[in-house]
């Protein structure tokens, strides 16, 4: 385990490349999967657009402001999911005994699990999110500080989703068939980021700030980018705190991962 | 009688996974809460959007969450078994059986749907009733019609999923088509946003496609938007799609069988 982290990145890349070649064995499916995933998220945004054909503002936010929220969270989610989405399947690895096989290999378990069945299907989502974000950002009054906050927002957003996916997937070390429980926090967290968070009662916002910190993925930094006062009256410092939230989530997730692996006892087959 | 036995087995098969069911109910409820607040914000800004009021909208959200698994909106159910058996070639054994393939898998899927309705359907609905002001069916007639509409929704959804699985005869792997079909189902069923909000031609198109049978039609029946002949027309719409699509399933299966024979499987 003393190798340089760059070695792990390279190993990850090799495993990922293997899976891309494997998926390409069914080319029609490969293309349809990418297009289909782009379509799902594309239609997602069409949904928001249809919503706005019935109103001018959603809880005081215009379409391009909501698009900025949507685009930035969607980009972060797409990156995180492409990189480590497979971690959700850990329950299956435990059930089939593949986790035992992985443990015997000289590559960190987390790297193997994350790279396993790597798929480029999220390319569709990535493109779509990028386009929405680019369009919405033409409405932002850019300053150097805001550019910096935008970049840190995207990186921190990835970290937060990364942490949520890894952390909540670890539930499967303790119970093998309650996978969907994690979805409430991961995909649920991703869904709330499509909306201005002031549509929720304050208690929910507090939960989204301190428990499942998705508010830091886009809500607080976007308020800064848009130069808006926080409609819920949270401290202004939160708008710059995304990197901290990202690191804390990530660290917590790695701790949970570690204790999950320690707790793990093989199915014994 | 055989089909009842198949359905019962499918019901029992799904009921084995208790923790998964509880986790699913929790997740459906979380999404129900999220969408409820989103719709409340929408209907707060425009109280008559799509001819719904805020209570209709929130009721719609929870009906959608209750139906999500029952109609297997994302795909899956018995048709996933079929796709896998086509890929491995085991489907050849199914074709030998003295029972129609479509009927066999439909019975199995209805058993699954019954289980999902009792758990993933009633569970979130109960939570929804506790947390939000949800409308009850407008009359006993509406409640009865909703039950019929629900069965038809499952049949239409089954037929579409069967057709998707059948693509595996040609593509070997259904996953690409399944994702595409899921994307259309989410959008055109009214799961993402009620179809009554869809503007102009898009709304007309969405309400004519089979996916409207999944969520929009049952929900409107529950909400009492269809009465009298309108109610009969709504159920008739679902019935026509169910018949047409089941016929398509049989047709595709006949084509596919010829292909299997050619392959010598």
Automatic annotation (TrEMBL), chain A:
Pfam families: ABC2_membrane_6 (PF06182). Keywords: Membrane, Transmembrane, Transmembrane helix. The chain crosses the membrane at residues 30-52, 147-174, 204-226, 238-257. The keyword Transmembrane applies. The keyword Lipoprotein does not apply. This is ABC-2 family transporter protein. It comes from Nocardioides hwasunensis.
From TrEMBL, chain B:
This is ABC-2 family transporter protein. InterPro entries: ABC-2_transporter-like. The keyword Protein biosynthesis does not apply. The chain crosses the membrane at residues 20-40, 60-77, 117-135, 141-172, 184-202, 231-253. It comes from the Bacteria. It holds the Pfam family ABC2_membrane_6. Keywords: Membrane, Transmembrane, Transmembrane helix. Signal peptide: none annotated.
């Amino acid at each position: 385990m003393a190798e340089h982290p760059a070695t792990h990145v390279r190993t990850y890349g090799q495993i990922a490349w293997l899976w891309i070649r494997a998926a390409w064995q069914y080319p029609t499916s490969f293309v349809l999967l990418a297009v289909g995933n782009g379509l799902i998220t594309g239609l997602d945004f069409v949904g928001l657009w249809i919503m706005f054909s019935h109103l001018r503002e959603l809880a005081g936010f215009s379409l391009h402001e909501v698009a900025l929220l949507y685009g930035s969270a969607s980009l972060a989610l797409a990156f995180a999911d492409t990189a480590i989405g497979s971690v959700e399947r850990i329950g299956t690895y435990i059930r089939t005994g593949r986790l035992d096989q992985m443990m015997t290999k000289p590559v960190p378990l987390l790297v193997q699990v994350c790279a396993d069945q790597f798929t480029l299907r999220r390319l569709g989502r990535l493109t779509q999110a990028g386009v929405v974000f680019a369009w919405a950002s033409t409405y932002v009054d850019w300053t150097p500080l805001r550019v910096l906050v935008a970049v840190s927002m995207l990186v921190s957003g990835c970290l937060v989703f990364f942490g949520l996916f890894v952390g909540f997937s670890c539930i499967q070390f303790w119970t093998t068939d309650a996978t969907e429980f994690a979805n409430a926090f991961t995909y649920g967290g991703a869904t709330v980021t499509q909306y201005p968070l002031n549509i929720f009662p304050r208690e929910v916002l507090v939960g989204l700030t301190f428990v499942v910190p998705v508010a830091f993925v886009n809500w607080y930094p976007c308020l800064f980018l848009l130069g808006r006062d926080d409609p819920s009256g949270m401290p202004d410092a939160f708008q710059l705190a995304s990197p901290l939230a990202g690191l804390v989530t990530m660290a917590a997730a790695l701790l949970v991962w570690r204790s999950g692996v320690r707790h793990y006892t093989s199915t014994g087959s | 009688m055989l089909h009842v036995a198949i359905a019962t087995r499918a019901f029992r098969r799904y009921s084995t996974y208790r923790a998964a069911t509880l986790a699913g109910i929790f997740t459906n409820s979380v999404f129900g809460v999220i969408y409820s607040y989103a719709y409340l914000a929408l209907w707060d800004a425009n109280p008559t959007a799509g001819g719904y009021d805020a209570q209709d909208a929130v009721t719609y959200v929870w009906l959608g969450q209750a139906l999500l698994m029952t109609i297997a909106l994302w795909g899956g159910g018995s048709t996933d078994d079929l796709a896998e058996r086509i890929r491995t070639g085991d489907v050849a054994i199914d074709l030998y059986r003295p029972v129609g393939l479509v009927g066999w898998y439909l019975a199995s899927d209805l058993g699954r749907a019954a289980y999902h309705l009792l758990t993933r359907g009633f569970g979130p609905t109960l939570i929804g009733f506790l947390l939000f002001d949800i409308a009850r069916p407008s009359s006993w007639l509406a409640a009865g019609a909703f039950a019929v509409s629900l069965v038809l929704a499952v049949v239409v959804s089954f037929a579409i999923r069967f057709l998707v699985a059948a693509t595996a005869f040609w593509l070997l792997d259904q996953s690409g088509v399944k994702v595409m079909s899921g994307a259309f189902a989410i959008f055109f069923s009214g799961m993402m946003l009620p179809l009554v909000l869809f503007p102009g031609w898009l709304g007309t198109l969405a309400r004519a496609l089979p996916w409207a049978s999944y969520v929009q039609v049952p929900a409107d029946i529950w909400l009492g938007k269809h009465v009298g002949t309108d109610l009969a027309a709504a159920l008739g719409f679902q019935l026509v799609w169910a018949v047409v699509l089941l016929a398509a399933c049989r047709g595709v299966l006949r084509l596919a069988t010829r292909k299997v024979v050619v392959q010598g499987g």
